Amino acid sequence: MSLKQLQELNKAYQIHSVQDESFKTYGKIIKEDVQDAIAYVLANVHPPKIGNCYEPSVQVIEEYSSIQRLSQKVYGYMDVMAGVVAGHNDVLNGIEYHQGSETIVAVTDYVLVVGHLWDMLDDTYDSSLCEIFYVPQGTIIELWSTTLHYTPICVSDEGFLTICLLLRGTGDKLLKRGGILKKKNKWFIAHYDNKEKVDLGDYPGLIGKMIQIKYKK
Fold it and tell me: Which Pfam families does the UniProt entry name for this protein (predicted)?
C-alpha cells in the first residue's frame, strides 16, 4: 500500500513519509544493507492472525554479519539484542520509551505513531500530540531515547514484520515494578480505554483519542 492510499483512507490524520523533515526530532534513517536478514524473516516468521508477538532476542538474526554491522554502527559495540516484532495491529493503545536508541528494520511496510518524551507530564501524554509516519519495506530507522512509540501498525491483511534492536536486557522482568517502569528499561503507559492493560496494573496515562489507522475501506 502506498502512502497516498493510506492518506486517502485516513483523512482524519496527517500521515507523513518517514523521509519527511519532521521525523528528524524522533530519529533518523540508517543506511545499511540487511537484505539477507530481511529475507530470513520473510521466509521464517509469520505474524499471528490476531494480535502481536515480540521475540526480543533471536540468535539466528543476531548472527547475521549485516545485523552485527548495523548494531556496531548505531550502538558502538554495546551489548545489543536483535529480535522480531510481528502481528496485526491498527491502534495506538499505549506508549513507551527506553534509555538507548531503538533500531527498527522494516521487513514489511508499516505505520509508526510517535511522540516526544518531553511532552509527557506527570506520567500523562495526550495522543493529539502524536505524529504518524509511513515506513516502507527495507527502511531502517533509529529512534532516539526521547521518542515515545509502541507497536507498529500494519498496512495489509498479511500484518507487519520488523526486526528490532535494543540494548540487551531491555524488557526483562523486574522483581518489583515502580510507577510506569513496567520492565527493565521499559517505561509504559496504557491508553485509558485499554481495559486489558489497565486491569493488569498499567498506568492509564495515555489520554485523548485512541489513534486508529485503516488500510482498507
Answer: DUF4867
